[in-house]
Specification:
- The structure is a single chain.
- With 368 residues, the protein is α/β, with parallel strands linked by helices.
- The protein has 2 domains: 175 residues, Glycogen Phosphorylase B (Rossmann fold, 3-Layer(aba) Sandwich); 179 residues, 3-Layer(aba) Sandwich (Rossmann fold).
- Helix content is 42%, strand content 17%.
- The strands form 2 sheets. The chain has a 7-stranded parallel beta sheet. Strands 10-9-8-11-12-13 form a 6-stranded parallel beta sheet, with helices on both faces.
- Helix 1 runs parallel beside helix 2 and helix 3 crosses helix 4.
- The termini are close together.
């Protein structure tokens, strides 16, 4: 079966990371041949091509330009007419809004791949709701609980994101090399966060919590690049906040990294304190795989990932509660090790690519 994934392709985050994993690990679903149709020829398009999967460009879509929308829809319609696809999977409401009806007209089963909770307040969600899919694949139970906002009659299947956990021994020399690269002393407790520069991710909350712990020996590494103008403004705000609170020299914004696993291996604690419910969190799984204890807020998809065996859940939007949890781990190396040891098995139980792709294969074959 040829499966066509349809997506915008202009940004890079968790959705794109998951799509790349689907391409790399496609051998686990041998009856499915994945292809990708993207509106923008960006980083994810280039990385998908490197895996050897077909990548089709539909043309850049600007909603304010109806002609660009029409052209992209026609290209997808022509592709579906020329090639025998078994399923079209539209990732996120934008793709379902723009292209879902084209799959429907072509008579190809349409999946809505849901990567975020639905509120019904954004125009992409209103537009997506006009074309009901044959099936929704949701990346968490939390996400699935909001599907009726868009598609009250659509069946939801929960499929966690497949995540490849690198086999790493976290060699002492490599760990020290990373710390030296970032100008971090070898005895400092490194708290790391990986994510896009969005307020939802709780960067400001973490900075405020750490500012109350100046007497503790910590350094914070922030991994993630600002990709849009509002994200650049947000990054500037975070830098100002860190400076105003007197911890600017201890918060290191490292930008985009292609060696996230290596950096995680040199850290001690993973902290990602979302201030509002987030859908899932691939970075949580990567941190667990790196044997890092995870500190996060008890909301959204994180509740399905983190438990007392591998991390600490704190009250959302509570600076003092977050600071208290971090202080305990900063001061207790044994607690860090104990929680970290359970991480890889927890990550594998939730997101093993072999299990996830086989489940996907079963779901898709059931549509035909």
């Amino acid at each position: 079966m040829r499966l066509l994934h349809v997506h915008s392709g202009n940004l890079y985050g968790g959705v794109e990371t998951m799509m790349l994993t689907l391409a790399h690990e496609r051998a686990y679903a041998p009856s499915i041949a994945p292809e990708f149709a993207l509106a923008f020829d960006g980083r994810i398009a280039a990385e998908l091509r490197e895996t050897g999967v077909p990548v089709h460009l539909l043309g850049e879509v600007r909603v304010r330009s109806p002609l660009s929308v029409l052209r992209a829809r026609r290209r997808l319609a022509s592709l579906l007419a020329a090639e025998p696809y078994g399923v079209v999977a539209c990732h996120m409401p934008w793709a379902q809004a723009i292209f879902g009806s084209i799959a429907r007209r072509a008579g190809v089963p349409n999946i809505f791949w849901m990567h975020g909770a639905a509120s019904g307040r954004h125009w992409t969600q209103w537009a997506a709701a006009r074309t009901s899919p044959d099936l929704a694949i949701c990346n968490s139970r939390f996400t699935a609980s909001t599907l009726p906002v868009l598609f009250p009659d659509t069946v939801a299947e929960v499929l966690y994101c497949p995540v490849v956990i690198p086999v790493s021994r976290h060699r002492a020399d490599e760990r020290l090399a990373v710390r030296d690269e970032f100008g971090t002393t070898r005895d400092a407790v490194v708290i790391v966060q990986v994510g896009r520069m969005e307020a939802l991710k709780g960067h400001a909350l973490l900075i405020r919590a750490l500012a109350t712990l100046r007497d503790h020996a910590w350094v914070c590494w922030q991994i993630g690049a600002a990709q849009r103008p509002r994200e650049l403004r947000y990054l500037d705000e975070l830098n100002r906040l860190a400076g105003e609170l007197g911890v600017g020299d201890r918060i290191k914004f490292l930008g985009h990294r292609t060696d996230v696993a290596r950096v995680l291996g040199a850290a001690d604690i993973y902290c990602h304190p979302n201030i509002a419910p987030d859908a899932f969190g691939i970075s949580f799984i990567e941190a667990l795989g790196a044997r890092l204890p995870v500190v996060t807020t008890a909301i959204g998809g994180a509740l399905e990932i983190i438990d007392e065996t591998c991390g600490v859940l704190v009250v959302p939007n509570d600076v003092d509660a977050l600071a208290e949890a971090l202080a305990r781990l900063i001061d207790d190396a044994d607690a860090r090790r104990r929680l970290g040891v359970a991480g890889p098995s927890r990550a594998a139980a939730l997101c093993d690519p072999a299990a996830i792709l086989r489940r996907m294969e079963t779901l898709l074959n059931g549509l035909n």
